[in-house]
Amino acid sequence: MPALAIAEAIRERYPDWDVVLAGARRGIEARLLPNRPFRFHLLAAEPLYRRQWWRNLRWPFLAIRLIRETGRLLDLERPAAVLGTGGYASGPVAWLAARRGVPTAIFEPDARPGLTSRLLARRVDEVYLGVPEAERLLGREGRKGREGRDGAVTRKPRFFLTGPPIVPPDPSAAARGREVFGVDGTRPVVLITGGSQGALALNETVASWIRSGRAERIQVIWATGAGTYDRFRDFHHPPSVHVAAFLDPIAEAYAVADLAVTRAGMMTIAELCAWGLASILVPLPTAAQDHQTENARVMAAAGAAVQVPQAELTVERLSEEVGSLTVNSARRSGLAAQARKRGRPEARAEILSHLERLIGPG
């Protein structure tokens, strides 16, 4: 999603640039990219498995194939610059591009950078950060600046805090949101979302919370995710409870919400901060390297959100946290103000400016 957001921004600002996206055949991009107006290549990239470790035994064979495919891709496209934004294919493409001397940058959204970003930080020219906390670790990797075993000279990258490349808030969305969701201003509005695929543990707790009657004085906008929508669609009773598989666009919901209950992916957090919205973050405990917990931790430490581990998310805890924040407007406003301070709604434009300089004249 960051890659698509940046690609769309490039098309708007620089219509003469040719944007080419690279992804994995088994990734979500295989479903998304055919419906987007960009040329793309799908590679034989796969993740490193942490629990089913035996599946990694075939990686030596996959790696040879992946490097060959990546080399052919770079030979074919001859890019002026490469930007890695995460995903299975991002690491190999950015690594080989940097090794060939192509101006290369990476975007790291999370407070706890993944292994790929830590390795690439030694090689790329620039690193764009979603949050300032990530520079401590990536900066340490980037400063190593030594010659690699493969003979490629590692680089000391320039770091830029850009924020994740989200769509900036739309001031006109509030009026549309009040109409779409029937908001009348007499009850606080709580937005609940677990992402495009949904969060079953979160959804089940929300369902029990609504069923218990503890949400009667609250208006709920609930995006269940496509994977679990059929299990919870019967809770749809507008305007008190509005249930949808997903909200696209989500701007209308952000604009009318007083509080959000969400996972702790950094793109979601960036949107919450840009909109200045108080939130309760429930990190996905199985996220790679538990990065969502670190994202939520830094937000809570900054006074910009409330962190609730999934293991502690009961109906009672959800009711307590939501009730406290909807009743205590001063506390809710304080969280919103701190979130807004961390917001970088113009991140896409800033990343584009860095890319333009990275490419250079011509």
List its traits.
4-stranded parallel β-sheet; alpha/beta; 2 domains; elongated; 6-stranded parallel β-sheet; 14% strand; single chain; Rossmann fold; 362 residues
Description:
- The chain is built from 15 helices and twelve strands.
- It is of the alpha/beta class.
- The protein has two domains: 179 residues, Glycogen Phosphorylase B (Rossmann fold, 3-Layer(aba) Sandwich); 170 residues, Glycogen Phosphorylase B (Rossmann fold).
- The two termini are 28 Å apart.
Summarize the amount of helix as a percent range: 40-55%
Largest sheet: 6 strands, parallel
CATH topology of the largest domain: Rossmann fold
User: What is the CATH first-level class name of the largest domain?
Assistant: Alpha Beta
Order of helices and strands: HEHEHEHEHEHEHEHEHEHEHEHEHHH
Please state the second-level CATH architecture of the largest domain: 3-Layer(aba) Sandwich
Low-confidence stretches: 146-151
Distance between the termini: 28 Å
Strand content: 5-15%
Number of helices: 15
Shape: elongated
- Whole-number total of structural domains: 2
DSSP strand tally: 12
Structural class: alpha/beta
Rg estimate, integer Å: 21 Å
Classified in CATH, the superfamily of the largest domain is Glycogen Phosphorylase B
Strand order of the largest sheet: 9-8-7-10-11-12
What number is the mean pLDDT? 88
